[in-house]
Amino acid sequence: MEFATTISPQIKFGLQAIGIWPGSSYSLLYRAFWTITLGVTQTFQFKYIISCIKNNNFPDLVDSVSTTLPYSLLCLKLIILWLNQRLFNDILTSISRDWHNCDSVSFNMHTMTNKANLSRRYSMLIIGVYWMAVVVYVSVIMEFNYTNESNKAEDHLFLKMEFPFTYDVSPIREIVMVSQFVQLLSNASVIGMLDALIVTLILHISGQIDIVCRELFKLFSEKYGCKLYKAATREVIRRHQDVIALSDNIENLFSYIALMQFFTNTLVICCIAFVIVTSIEGNQNYAMLLKSLFFYIAITLEAFIFCFAGEYLSNKSKSVANAAYEVFWYNVKPSESRMLLILILRSQKRLTLTIGKFNDLSLQVFAS
């Protein structure tokens, strides 16, 4: 099933890999794979957390919680997306229809192409940042293990887990480390892909809003016959309705994801801050401090992307009402300019993303 072209190849590949892209082969197999791997990983991670609680090992407890919660959040994100497959299909269908409707107008196609190119750049940037965080995280732990080669008992795994078998002998240890690295990289890719997805969807809506504003100015600056004017008016209203419907679908899909995102990110940031402070006060290796800083940047970036997307969508939605005020409505008959009232009234309600339906996502929320 083909959907053009706002969705970048990186995002499409990621959506296929988690089994949510419509019509993709082996989607059930992909879902089973992620369910099993994340389920097993979470089991071993929570067993380690429980052992830290029993042993009153608070520093290790905080450090392990900071790496466990992002995995738990990813599990919940995937479950929500799988349960809302039909809603996600509707979003992709709306995007495909918008591209089809742009074919006959060069300005519309130029606008949407620019948004698609921008979304591709952001996708590569976001996924690249997560990959960099993983590489730094893994490199620091490997360097720590290398410098403490004389004491194998203090060697660190990439992810703190408690296994039901002995893993500190070769080659079992190497297999475990490689498996954890592959999982870290794949999970970071999926997290980055989902963040890039919401940026892509908001950029698509932005392009559609630009087209609505341009059609409004065109409607009141050119001379139409009665029938052509009514047809052009209906097209502007229809396109604006489609923008509102698409925004509502995106809000319904990502609202509770954003709620869990901010709850877990708050806890993770607190844990990372504790690790950073203890690293500084304990005069520990600055490489371990660097590991925590890059992890902190990645987690903060995730929260910022959601807040920026909500702020951008909210501000962009105001441009429809502003365009309706600024068009040359006084050059047409009052009966013909009446449709502006509909657009203005509909534009009074800002398009936005929310945190669980009770608070708007904005840069103010991010700063607080």
Automatic annotation (TrEMBL):
One of its GO terms (biological process) is signal transduction. Keywords: Cell membrane, Membrane, Olfaction, Receptor, Sensory transduction, Transducer, Transmembrane, Transmembrane helix. InterPro entries: 7tm6_olfct_rcpt. It is found in: Cell membrane. GO terms for molecular function: odorant binding; olfactory receptor activity. The chain crosses the membrane at residues 122-142, 184-205, 253-280, 286-309. This is Odorant receptor. It is a multi-pass membrane protein. It comes from the Eukaryota. It holds the Pfam family 7tm_6. GO terms for cellular component: plasma membrane.
